[in-house]
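User: I'm writing a tutorial on reading structure tokens. Could you give me a worked example: one chain, its sequence, then its tokens, then a sentence or two explaining what the tokens reveal?
Assistant: Sure. Here is the example chain.
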Amino acid sequence: MNSPSTSIFEASRPSLFRLAYRMLGERGLAEDVVQDCWLRWREADHARIEKPAAWLTTVATRLALDALRKAKARRETYIGPWLPEPLLAGSEDTGATLELADELSIALLHMLERLSPEERAALVLREAFDFDYKEIAAILGRSEVACRKLVSRAKLHVRSSTRARPVSRAEHEALLGKFMSAVALKDAKALAELFRPDAVAYTDGGGVVLAARNPIRGRDKIVRFLLGLAAKKSRTGATRAEIGTVNAEPAIFLYEHERLDTVYAIAIETGTISALFAIRNPHKLHPPALREANARC
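And here are its predicted structure tokens:
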């Protein structure tokens, strides 16, 4: 039987993971933050902690801030565009982490990369966890006024990056279905009609697998890239695509020889694709924890 202190921590674990993942966009790093938080909790004087949940959130946020600063420096030398590590349906903590699509989408996590670590922390605490500014100030060691400014700047960055409105899952899946059909039929005209003229495609291979080293800007260039890639894949004769769930949103899973090769996620504006995110880095699609979870299924 777990001790009372262990039970307190385990009750907070899902929330701590959600916080760390929103801060970092990497499953492994988020799990490391939670583990480090557990180690600090285990050694803490619990009798002096009046509000365990607040204490744990403060520690996790500060650990995530330190991890994010280091990650940002590392991502500056990443080969090609860096995209968040997806949470794939089927992982062992899916139920605990995939709650709201608009909070966890690949598109939003990608936009959050434009924020400073402090702006990101303040925005996540305010918008995703509904902390008041007094609480945020205590966690970040800033004044309430400074925290309000952090959140305000973060919101401006995010709003200036998107004109999207929420769409239903049915609409999302329908657009992905048209995308899959147009690519399969190599129908350039039908594919072009699905994208905004100023759409951008990001492909993350991490220097491990083939991917564009820079964002692909413009509908026509994206279409040529996708059809060229489809032509190469078709030569193997062993690919299939299906719609699955990534970060609580519909996405396309492309398999090659029955191994997950690419995850395609999209951002939608006015019924068309404004951004395409192709995650191909196998270290993001096949992390050890996910392989172990799938093996147990």
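What the tokens reveal: The chain is about 55% helix and 15% strand. Residues 4-83+115-159 form a domain with the Butyryl-CoA Dehydrogenase, subunit A; domain 3 fold (CATH 1.20.140.160).
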